[in-house]
Amino acid sequence: MNLAGFANLITLSRLVITPFLIFSILHDKYIISGILVLTAVLSDWLDGVVARRYNDVTKHGELLDPAVDKIFTISVLVAFVEKNYISSFIVFLIVAREMLVTWFRSVMVSKGIVVPASYLGKLKTTAQLAAIFLLSVNVVTYGSILLWISIIIAYISALDYLKIFIKDRAWS
Q1: CB 54 within 8 A of CB 60
Q2: Which of 164, 160, 155 is nearest to 97 (CA)?
């Protein structure tokens, strides 16, 4: 069975889901929002499984997946700001961390320093997606608390990247 490119199609499905999810959040369609978040989370897991299982890991996919993840996350968080579930400061903290870590990793990769995703990074993503799910189904208090926990974890994991960046003098 030839599934070349199928993992990237699964990744792109998250991009397609995003505007529908935003619409459902903004119009208080909590069941639909929850289903769409779960579908997006499943697609994020599945694209990696398919890519590895069918040897379809590509540079294109390696760049596409995190880009789509960031578009999905930031777009949905902005919808939560519009609903007054969270503050724009939370979105700033999340975007700033993501951009800095992306920059650290890009500079290090250009110097031949490969830093795989860490346990804390995966924990951050799990907490963040769980928070997004809770917020999408209107469980605002617990979703907000979990989102703050994900931010704390995110900045701790960012320090790990910074330590490697400094230790390896990646800027030189």
Answers
A1: no
A2: 155
Contact 123, 156 (CB under 8 A): no
Give phi and psi for 168, each to the nearest 5: -90, 5
Determine the residue type at 136: S
What is the C-alpha to C-alpha distance for residues 86 and 143, in angstroms, rounded to an integer? 9
CB distance 108 to 115 below 8 Å: yes
Token readout for 162 is: 């910074």
Own/partner long-range contacts of 95-98 (Cβ < 8 Å, ≥24 apart):
97/151, 97/154, 97/155, 97/158, 98/70
Confirm if 124 and 118 have CB atoms less than 8 A apart: no
What DSSP character marks residue 85?
A: S
pTM (two decimals):
0.91
Rounded to an integer, what distance in angstroms lies between the CA atom of residue 48 and that of residue 53? 8
**Which of 72, 21, 10, 18 has the alpha carbon at shortest distance from 45?**
10
Contact 118, 157 (CB under 8 A): yes
Summarize pLDDT for 16-67 with one digit per residue, the tens.
999 999 999 999 999 999 999 999 999 999 988 888 888 877 777 778 888 9
Which residue in the block uniquely carries the two structure tokens 């960031």? 70
With H, G, I as helix, E, B as strand and everything else as coil, classify residue 137.
Answer: coil
